[in-house]
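Repro case for the chain-ordering regression, as requested:
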Amino acid sequence: MRLVDQFERGLDAPICLTWELTYACNLACAHCLSSSGRRDPRELSTVEAKAVVDELERMQVFYVNIGGGEPTVRPDFWELVDYATAHKVGVKFSTNGVRITPSVAERLAASDYVDVQISLDGATAEVNDAVRGTGSYATALRAMDNLHAAGMRGFKISVVCTRHNVDQLDAFAALADRFGAQLRLTRLRPSGRGADVWDQLHLLPGQQKQLYDWLVEHGEGVLTGDSFFHLAAYGSALPGLNLCGAGRVVCLIDPVGDVYACPFAIHENFLAGNVRSPGGFAGVWRTSQLFRSLREPQSAGACGSCGAYDACRGGCMAAKFFTGLPLDGPDPECVVGHGATALSTVDRLGAPRPAGDHSHAGGVRGGPVPVTIGRRPPPHACDESPLAGIGAGA
Amino acid sequence: MPAAGPAGFDLERRYALHPQVAVRPEPFGALLYHFGTRRLSFLKDPRLLQVVRGLADAPSAHAACTAAGVTEAELARLARALATLAETDMLEVA
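-- result from build under test --
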């Protein structure tokens, strides 16, 4: 059996997972996958978070990708990082750079077990700040400067590819070289607030090919987090596993302990349980009905007759779900063009809405300005009930 | 001569897992993770896992293979896999 088939059947423990520590964030990025902004009062306590680390150690999950929100604004952030690494759970955390001072950078440079990922969505302030907010480029560059000066090598610059920055790939690579960093490119998903801006920001068909060619040319030197396996339909597969690992080899633990199939699928349909339930995280991972069903052979559905299916595997589940497409059909960005056809016939306004909005009511100062009127009602009217999610999976 | 293995790796030397590498057994073999390089590797063969685990206690990689029941016919394939692990610092000369 091929390794990829083994992975599609799921493993007893994830290979790695995303753990969002808080919904609090100083920024209000237009495309935030977790609709972050305000802290949720139900977020895991320090003690609860440490218990999750204990479980991950027992399950031999080698590392976690910590994100948020902006994880470094949690007062116990460094305590949790130290606890994880002391328990053989490596940490890679994503940050907008706001707390990466010279002294923090020195501390990071001294640790083998902690890696940093600076989010940057434009190689220039103009392109970046339009999505991430005024001043966010300067903040990220200052953080990178501090890391570089402290001797931290190989940290990641993480870019969500959009139609406005796809022409800057060489400039991103040059930035990474300048700071001794490694470039990581990921796919924009219509998740969280990304659902509202996806139509304006996602790559145009010609740009997808442009990105694919660039990735093929740069090979393993550029990381992609297995983001672009739908592009494999252009020809050869990109480096990586090239499969959807949701609920099979990866998952998300959100700030309140809810376990979702993947970081881009914060919606009750992809909620497997909560780490606060009696079986803990391991119980959710091993016994949730949702995860069990994701580990069953999936139907190719409408893609079954397409010659590219073996390469792209139908693409990204979350991208289909939040654009209103059926899960057993083409990805909205299907490179053969089936996605565009499907999108033109589906009821886009009837697409499921991402759950758990923690956006700042009224935005933040210098925050990105929507370029079009979104489908979203005013934030306060669309906040979830404070009781939403409580008891789920318990 | 397959026993020589690919360049840089010598079957007749003694190797061991790098101290920063963790091993997680899986039905297909094992996952290896190097905390220093942050690289993940897959051992796609339970036999290879057996060899890797026996490396430190054997006088040579070749001996570790023999101890794990690797036949001469299988040796070249196993040596290639070990060489890849050595190239990516998962193994080091002991």
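Ordering looks correct now. Strands of chain A lie at 16-22, 63-68, 90-95, 114-119, 156-161, 182-187, 252-253, 258-260, 271-274.
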